[in-house]
What does this fold into?
Amino acid sequence: MERWALRRSLWRPLWRLLQRPIAAVFACLGVGGLVGTAAGFTPNSPEVQNAVARAVKFLESPAANDARPGAQALMALALLKNGADSNHPKVAWAAQSISAAVNRFGDPSRIDMDIYSTGLSVIFLVTLDPTTNGPHSLIVERLLESLLARQKSCGGWGYPEMQTGDTSMTQYVVLGYWEATQVGYQVSPESIERVAIWLMKTQDPSGGFGYQGTVSPTFVPVPQTNVYHSLTAAGLGSMYVCADLLGLSALAKEREEKLPPALKEVKAKTAKQFKSQIDPRLLREVQTRGKQWFAKNYVAVPPPRWCYYYLYALERYSSFREAVEGMSEEEPQWYNDGVRFLLEKQAADGTWQHDGGAAVDSAFCVLFLLRSSKKSIERARAFGAGTLIGGRGLPREGTELEVRADRVVVKPLLGPAESLLSSMDDLDYQEDDAALEAMAELPVEDARTLASKHAQKLRQLAGGGSPEARVAAIRTLAKTRNLDYVPLLISALGDRDPKVVREANDGLRRMSRRTSGDALPDRPTDADRQAAIKAWKAWFLAVRPDAQFED
It folds into this structure.
């Protein structure tokens, strides 16, 4: 494969010079189809964009009607990657369907969505809402808790009735973990390490990966069953992702090296981070064996078994490998082979269909053609134009910083928030935007400390400050999980400012840990407010029958 790539790179400049006259000759002869494709495809190639547009038209149509949560998430993810926003009907419907499926259960460990659907739902929702305090954050948190609760003793994920880990299912959990951490969610590093060890111990001696992993008692590979291209791409891609999550890859080191000097200094001063016990040399041996398997077994035409699912897994593995190894070829052979295959196989209605059905298979193909994983990696590793890895801009000058879970964040300061509350009785009291922002971003423990000292002032601010002050105070009180504040939050549902209403509703959902019902609309009506007040009062009376509510 490497020799072929070298020959292509040497011949490409000459081919580009010859391409136009050759294409003109074929056009005169009436030959259509793939003229000019030998020069290489990218996601921006007209042929690729046309294929994506036709597939997206299908995914947007009523004909793409797979009702499974995982299928809904996959189709909506493909639309998002192609530029759709949260108002797109199919995207909004997917988010609502997944929320409804999660809200049927109070305890995250009882969520009965299959592992495929759970992992894909996390990936979709954090792509839709790349924050940890947005309208879908509670659903993401519960899905992550569910995945953690259902991780098997072997370290992988799989069918509930089986003890073995399933390589196919596990890949979507691992990717979901990675996508969630990129926007600031906390994922158990012990869970990541466990699945990484499981992957290392379920690699076939050939370097491939099988279906239901047979765990080696050591790190010496033992034979696996059903070693296919699709499963090897799934297992090896997950191995690269785990290495990045654990800080054992060159991609993780590159992110640290790109930090501005001031942020490096902050990182050096922070508490000791989780240190993986995995020997990086063993990890690299797994990756090397896997690469050797693909070098020996790669074929230009995808194998017939789950071919479209395979292409998405191949794009993910290849994208992470390229990022780690610094491979920058714009038109890699594997992508061009996949594009040619898909252009030949796309049906007249814009679909691809094989093992997964038209909706799922077409979504897989769109994600492959768009280089979906590469887009995610580029977003995560970009520090250009003053952007931090979590997607936020660099903080204002003079702001204190800290690193949490390998993420650089603004350090919330208890001092400014406490000073603001202490000065509320002064005649010359004025709200301070920076102090309010610091209050809103306080971690849970600091929020509890602040509330224990200034409960009455927070109550006062929640009921009579500016909208920004009311939001900051309500968020702080909700973080305490102290049910004594529930009547105040229910009262805040009647506020005339929609930001305050949404904050109060989200706070109640966090405090109850039940996330019942969908989030309120951006501009709730009086009917929406009254319905929410009635529902939350009923819940609280069931918890505290003698509860008294504020006017």
Summary: The two ends are 73 Å apart (CA to CA). Residues 1-39, 266-272, 383-413 have pLDDT under 50 and may be disordered. The first strand starts at residue 401 and ends at 404. The domain at 412-543 is CATH 1.25.40 (Serine Threonine Protein Phosphatase 5, Tetratricopeptide repeat).
